[in-house]
TrEMBL record:
Membrane topology recorded in Swiss-Prot or TrEMBL: Multi-pass membrane protein
Domain Integral membrane bound transporter: from-to ranges: 405-526
InterPro entries, A to Z: Memb_transporter_dom, YccS_N
Family that this chain belongs to: Belongs to the YccS/YhfK family.
Organism: Spirosoma foliorum
Domain of life: Bacteria
PANTHER family for the chain: MULTIDRUG RESISTANCE PROTEIN MDTO, P-HYDROXYBENZOIC ACID EFFLUX PUMP SUBUNIT-RELATED
Predominant localisation class: membrane
Name by which UniProt lists this protein: FUSC family protein
Domain Integral membrane protein YccS N-terminal: 73-348
N-terminal signal peptide: none
Any one GO CC term of the record: plasma membrane
Length: 721
């Protein structure tokens, strides 16, 4: 199966596509059924309720999804009721928009699912603004919205009941798919035609995607009682596979070498092309594993990589010393063999699994996922300008009120709520995200409008138009969580066709929708730039501090293993997870900074070096530490321990400079010099690796020093000004 076929298969078997089918049917059926009894308006109200609660039905444990949908249904009912009466006066409506926009935006402090509930509440408020209803109509509409919410929730929970492991399989398959992409990027480092800096940028950006997918799998697996506590065969297989996949990911990350040196020494030979080809073959095999888990389908016949590895070994041996020592190439070969063995184990486990009993208590899965408490104290604690959520909520409230006032002052059209809808979906906490959404929204609306007009002009048959509308609905709800511009391109013609069925001029609606989108985009952009802006260059200290702290913990475990102290497996995996997560967070923040106005960016080159060096550091720590988890504890000689202690001290001092770390951490580091025992165990190859770790740590320390010096200069300039 080629790459394009795999991509299509991944999408068609993904959670996104199955969600798209479920949401489309759940929204469409009430309107279609009630239209047969001349109750189309009632059906559309139910469809609106179904659409609204679907926003809060994000992937996750069934219990969390059920609670999210129940909360969304009750809030939607209340908001519909309040808005129905508030809209009778523009002044009360303005007050509601201001208060509700702030209140529901504050839900972001409780995590992604609560944010979705808040977004759904704002959506139902916006869509009710221009609905002319009397008192009886408001009560009836609210009841129908609630009925539609219950309808969708019932369908969603029933599907989960019938396929309890499907979501976990899809999440795990997508996670493996992203890791396979990262592995393919690793192959580019051996391609002399590529730029190393570009490769690092692609690698670090892909790590962000992998981290997101890993968190999604942890959320589904470790918070699902059926999977963690019950000893079903499918649940155990999913758990064991995910644990093996994370170990495989560590091995892939640990495949770091001095690529510039390798290119310089062996670039003229064909050996680097062969290494790159081998890595890509391994990546393809890994991709097939993810697809087999996600579909699921009969597993394709695995390709035996061993002949390829043996041929690579012969070519390495044939080089001899003509291009210098081939030791580094032999290390690459060892890493590839290890990855190949792990892939083979995964393949065998899928074909004929041998499931050993899992000690769930020893694994302590609960420590690998975050737990968000929903309480009033957290809400009150965030009512300060120091809180990014509070600043964003104020920004949304003001922008929404401005948009509402403008639509009342400009006497045009009948769908002015599109302005508020545009503001609510475009305005994000980070300026770069708002800018990106703005561009995608405008371009997607323009492209979608053209598509909609073409469909309605050249396909006058209503049955054909309805078929197009269903396909566009499916595209809209399948892409809403993965590709915003595709969603906008699909939703615009879908709405135009819907308006055509309702007797509205589609050309006028297309023109009005584009104008409203443009107006809403301008308001959102100005609000993001002018109202309590939060520039990433001012926020980067936190993720930099977090990754330094994670690497300090990681290198501490390395020192413990070299000093003969046994390492707890769960503690090691938690430290490893923290390194991956903080690295992804820093990379994402850095990318957002690069999308901001040029005059708001600071020290981008130094921060890029900081990101890359921390990636190199954690990769080398993983290479050594992971190899010692299964070995008997050994105590190494002082010359081997010295570079690790120095590296630990440098990183701790750098952390202190960024975040004013307590003195206790430094004392703990110094204490290691006194308490560490020394023996005669030495290892020249290991010493070389440890010296490299010290050198990378030293480079990180120098970058931190330069960054802090520049920050002090900027601060003095501001004070003098």
């Amino acid at each position: 199966m080629n790459k394009q076929s795999r991509e299509v298969s991944y999408f068609l078997s993904s959670q996104y596509f199955s969600d798209g089918i479920r949401i489309t049917l759940s929204i469409l059926l009430p309107s279609l059924l009630l239209a047969q009894f001349d109750q189309l308006q009632a059906g559309m109200a139910m469809s609106l309720g179904a659409l609204n609660v679907s926003l809060s039905d994000a992937p996750g444990p069934v219990m969390h999804r059920r609670n999210g949908m129940a909360s969304s249904a009750l809030i939607s009912f209340s908001v519909t009721l309040i808005t129905g009466f508030a809209r009778m006066s523009p002044y009360t409506m303005g007050v509601e928009i201001l208060l509700f926009s702030f209140f529901f935006s504050m839900f972001a402090i409780y995590g992604n699912r609560a944010t979705s509930v808040g977004t759904a509440a704002l959506l139902i408020m916006i869509l009710m603004i221009d609905r002319p209803m009397d008192t009886a109509g408001v009560l009836r509409e609210s009841g129908l919205v609630l009925a539609g919410s219950v309808w969708y929730s019932t369908i969603s929970l029933l599907v989960s009941r019938l396929q309890p492991y499907r979501l976990a399989q899809q999440a795990l398959g997508q996670c493996i798919h992203e890791i396979a992409k990262l592995m393919a990027i690793k192959a580019d480092f051996y391609d002399v035609s590529t730029q190393l800096d570009d490769n690092y940028r692609h690698l670090i950006a892909q790590q962000v995607d992998v981290s997101e997918k890993q968190d999604a799998v942890r959320e589904v697996l470790f918070k699902s009682r059926r999977i963690v506590t019950e000893s079903t065969r499918t649940g155990r297989l999913l758990l064991l596979t995910f644990v093996d996949v994370i170990d495989l990911y560590e091995q892939i990350i640990a495949m770091y070498f001095d690529y510039s040196d390798i290119r310089e020494r062996f670039g003229k030979s064909r050996i680097l092309d062969q290494i790159a080809h081998t890595i890509r073959r391994l990546s393809v095999e890994l991709d097939h594993i993810g697809l087999a888990i996600q579909l699921p389908v009969p597993f394709h016949k695995p390709i035996d990589i061993n002949p390829i590895l043996e041929e690579l070994k012969r070519h390495i041996d044939a080089l001899g010393d003509q291009d210098g020592s081939t030791l580094v190439l032999k290390k690459v070969l060892v890493s590839l063999r290890t990855v190949s063995q792990r892939l083979t184990a995964l393949q065998k486990n899928l074909v004929s699994p041998t499931l050993n009993p899992i000690d769930n208590e020893a694994m302590e899965y609960g420590r690998f996922v975050s737990h968000q408490e929903i309480d009033l104290k957290s809400f009150l604690d965030n009512l300060t300008l120091d809180s990014s959520v509070f600043r964003h909520s104020v920004r949304v409230a003001i922008a929404m009120l401005v948009g509402f006032v403008i639509t009342k002052l400009l006497p045009y059209g009948h769908h002015s709520y599109w302005v508020l809808l545009t503001i609510s979906v475009i305005l994000k906490p980070a300026f770069s995200l708002t800018k990106q959404r703005n561009i995608e929204r405008i371009l997607g609306t323009l492209a979608g409008g053209v598509i909609g007009v073409l469909i309605l002009t050249f396909f006058p048959n209503k049955n054909v138009q309805f078929a197009f509308m269903v396909l566009l609905m499916l595209g809209t709800y399948s892409a809403q969580r993965i590709n915003y511009i595709v969603m906008v391109i699909c939703v615009t013609p879908f709405i135009l066709i819907l308006f055509k069925f309702l007797g509205v001029s589609y050309l006028g609606a297309a023109e009005e929708r584009f104008f409203d989108t443009l107006l809403g985009g301008v308001i959102a952009f100005m609000a993001s730039y002018l109202l309590f802006p939060q520039w990433e260059s001012e926020q980067l200290k936190k993720p930099m501090q977090a990754i330094l702290k994670a690497n300090v913990r990681y290198i501490q475990l390395l020192l413990d293993s070299l000093s003969g102290r046994p390492i707890n497996l769960v503690d090691y995996k938690l430290a490893r997870k923290e390194v991956y997560v903080t690295s992804a967070n820093l990379s994402a923040a850095f990318d957002r900074m690069l999308s901001e106005p040029k005059h708001k960016q600071r020290n981008e080159k130094l921060i890029y070096e900081f990101v890359v060096l921390n990636h190199v550091l954690s990769a080398n720590i993983a290479t050594i530490t992971s190899a010692r988890l299964t070995d008997e504890p050994k105590v190494y000689a002082t010359p081997l321990l010295r570079p690790v202690k120095r590296a630990l001290r440098i990183l701790t001092e750098s952390l202190h400079k960024i975040s004013a770390t307590t003195a206790k951490q430094s004392q703990d580091v110094n204490a290691l010099d006194i308490n560490t025992a020394a023996t005669s165990l030495t290892d020249p190859s290991l010493l070389e690796q440890l010296n490299f770790i010290q050198q990378v740590s030293s480079d990180i320390g120098k970058i931190v020093e330069r960054l802090m010096t520049r920050e002090q200069i900027i601060k003095k300039r501001h004070q003098s000004a």
